[in-house]
Write a structure and sequence with these properties.
GO terms for molecular function: sigma factor antagonist activity. The protein has helices at 3-14, 20-29, 36-46, 50-69, 72-78, 82-85, 89-114, 251-255, 269-280, 306-316, and strands at 122-126, 133-136, 142-145, 150-154, 162-167, 169-173, 182-186, 189-193, 197-201, 207-214, 217-221, 224-229, 233-238, 244-248, 262-268, 283-286, 295-300, 319-324, 327-332. The protein is an alpha+beta fold and 336 residues long. The protein folds into three domains: 3-114, no CATH class; 122-254, Jelly Rolls (Sandwich), CATH 2.60.120; 261-332, Phage tail protein beta-alpha-beta fold. Helix 4 (50-69) packs antiparallel against helix 7 (89-114). The two termini are 53 Å apart.
Length: 336
């Protein structure tokens, strides 16, 4: 029986749609030491709900109780003349031991699966629109955080992995450590490496983009393998359709922003607007939605001015723009 099946049964039990046959099977599993690790992993993820403690404790108690009823000692005692049992000390000791066992099991379940996790101190960094930031992680790895992004990680990587949470875009240059994999979580997608360099972006609407410049990267969604990426490979995962696509790209074009360059590498105007908005701290509004489909290829140095960028891309895609405070309105025929 594999771990995935055990996790499926546990999830169905907690969410109260498990069948009688599956429940009987689960009662056997929860008292089998071979599955202790996978059960603990699951319970660690749901311990915050007190109701789960009650449910799981009852499950374990029921399992042990049925094990006691099925034991040879209990069957033998049940077949003895009940009147003689009143005068047999071992009978009462057996009953008492059974009760104590179930009580002890309840306490063990609480301690093993529902003990409060240790308090972990975190570091958190945010960049505003127009800002970029270089960060040194506790293990010596380096992160470049792009505009309008947020990153969160423990102040010390003391567990079995180096876990980082990201919203926005960042480039990671990770030190190699075989014993402690490096994981970046963007929503329900995780990117895992041992030591490599890669870029992750959530700028595109409903898309998580992973681009590798060095080494190997594994990308997963809720435990499902989406792909293994090597240098100059990119994976786009649509968070709505759950479809992942891989491409061969020039990874340097997707990480040039770490050197202060604004790169619009064959992107739609919709994506270009997101990047420009974050870069210059403005809000771009399309008067004609058809303009969002127009494509653009352009690279600008870090000291470029907003007006220079807009002047060039408006000529490339034949549209006009008007600036009011920090709002930029685009008008034109659009593209099909």
């Amino acid at each position: 029986m594999d771990d995935i099946y055990v996790l499926t049964l546990l999830k169905k039990f907690i969410e109260n749609y498990i069948t009688e046959q599956e429940y009987a099977e689960l009662k056997i599993i929860v008292i089998n030491p071979a599955y202790e690790a996978v059960i603990k992993k699951f319970m660690d993820s749901v311990w915050e709900d007190p109701g789960n403690l009650v449910l799981f404790t009852k499950l374990r108690s029921d399992a042990v109780y049925e094990q006691i009823l099925a034991s040879k000692q209990f069957i033998a005692a049940k077949n003895v003349d009940k009147r003689s049992l009143w005068h047999r000390p071992y009978y009462w000791k057996s009953i008492a031991a059974s009760v104590l066992l179930i009580a002890a099991l309840t306490k063990t379940t609480q301690k093993l699966f529902f003990s409060s996790p240790a308090v972990v101190a975190y570091s958190e960094y945010r960049t505003l629109a127009g800002e970029r930031l270089k960060i040194n992680l506790p293990d010596g790895s380096e992160v470049w955080l792009n505009a309008g992004s947020q990153i969160r990680f423990p102040k010390n990587f003391e567990g079995h992995s180096r876990d980082v949470q990201l919203d926005g875009e960042a480039f990671f240059d990770v030190l190699h450590d075989e014993k402690k994999p490096f994981k970046v979580f963007t929503g329900k997608v995780s990117t895992q490496v041992l030591g490599t360099a890669f870029n992750i972006s959530t700028y595109k609407p409903q898309v998580i983009e992973v681009t590798v410049t060095r080494g190997m990267v594994s990308v997963q969604h809720e435990g499902r393998q989406l792909g293994m990426l090597s240098r100059n490979k990119q994976l786009d995962f649509n968070t709505v359709s759950k479809i992942a696509e891989q491409h061969v790209v020039d990874a340097g074009a997707y990480t040039a922003w770490t050197n202060g360059e604004l790169v619009l590498n064959d992107v739609t105007m919709e994506e270009a607007a997101i990047r420009i908005s974050r870069w210059f701290n403005v809000k771009i509004i399309f008067k004609n939605p058809g303009l969002k489909k127009c494509r653009l290829v352009a690279t600008f140095p870090g000291n470029v001015k907003f007006t220079q960028v807009m002047s060039i891309i408006s000529r490339l895609n034949n549209f006009t723009y008007q600036v009011t405070d920090k709002n930029v309105y685009l008008s034109g025929n659009g593209c099909k």
